[in-house]
């Protein structure tokens, strides 16, 4: 069993917390764009109040531990590991609650190359606990806006985790999809489930637009977020995201495995 102290050490050693690879410049740019309500950083969230760039910086300092000094404009961002650990406890509590009531759950990621394995372990454990891990709209085409304009992607699932792929790609089960911040995939999944009269999730677990898009629609949502993803933390502050866990979302995939084991142990869902 991984202790809290051992996980704290791992967070720092793997640079999931402490000084992280995400730069201060990237964070401040995202806060500025969020204040301007740029859809690229809103991730499907429609904030209830006006958030200035300074407001977002203060919130991120409170939720993540980044510096609240607007004059600090360069270098690596810093995440307080104690905040990460506290958020993981809350994350585990939500998983435990879903398991206890055997709630239907949807997993989705915009970071499949990094986070797919983390979510897959959780999906397997919740399935074993009696939860329906939902997989609606497999194969549906979704138009997603990116830096090179709008492109069509295909919804797919790997080990119970939703992602988007390049159209026409027939990848092996272990292969992953493309990186996206868009909320359109989760909207398409929920729309297809409702249209077909299938079960809707009571909990969505993921990142980026999967969390904010679901939370904006009133579905309980929990997920992981980096310091340049303020939308999840604003959503949490405004009550539409239940838990946002601050950590670097771009380290090698194997570094998230201890987090999955820790969360399942805290939720009493160890496989």
Automatic annotation (TrEMBL):
Name of the protein this chain belongs to: Phosphatase
Any Pfam family: Phosphatase
InterPro entries named in the record: Phosphatase_SCO2771
């Amino acid at each position: 069993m991984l202790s809290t102290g051992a996980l704290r050490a791992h967070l720092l050693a793997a640079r999931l917390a402490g000084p992280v690879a995400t730069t201060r410049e990237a964070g401040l740019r995202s806060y500025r764009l969020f204040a301007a309500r740029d859809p690229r950083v809103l991730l499907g969230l429609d904030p209830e109040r006006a958030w200035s760039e300074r407001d977002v910086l203060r919130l991120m300092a409170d939720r993540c531990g980044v510096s609240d000094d607007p004059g600090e404009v360069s270098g690596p961002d810093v995440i307080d590991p104690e905040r990460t650990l506290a958020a993981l406890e809350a994350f585990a509590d939500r998983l435990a609650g879903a398991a206890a009531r055997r709630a239907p759950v949807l997993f989705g990621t915009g970071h499949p190359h990094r986070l797919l394995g983390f979510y897959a372990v959780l999906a397997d454990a919740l399935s074993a606990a009696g939860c329906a891990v939902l997989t609606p709209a497999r194969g549906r085409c979704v138009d997603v806006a990116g830096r090179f304009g709008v492109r069509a992607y295909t919804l797919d699932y790997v080990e119970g985790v939703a992602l988007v792929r390049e159209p026409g790609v027939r990848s092996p089960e272990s292969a992953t999809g493309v990186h996206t911040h868009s909320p359109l995939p989760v909207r398409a999944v929920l729309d297809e489930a409702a249209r077909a009269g299938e079960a809707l999730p009571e909990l969505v677990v993921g990142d980026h637009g999967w969390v904010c898009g679901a939370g904006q629609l009133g579905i309980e949502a929990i997920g992981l977020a980096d310091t340049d993803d303020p939308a999840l933390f604003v959503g949490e502050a405004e009550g539409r995201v239940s838990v946002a866990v601050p950590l670097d979302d771009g380290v090698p995939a194997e570094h998230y495995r201890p987090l999955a084991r820790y969360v399942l142990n805290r939720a009493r869902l160890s496989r």
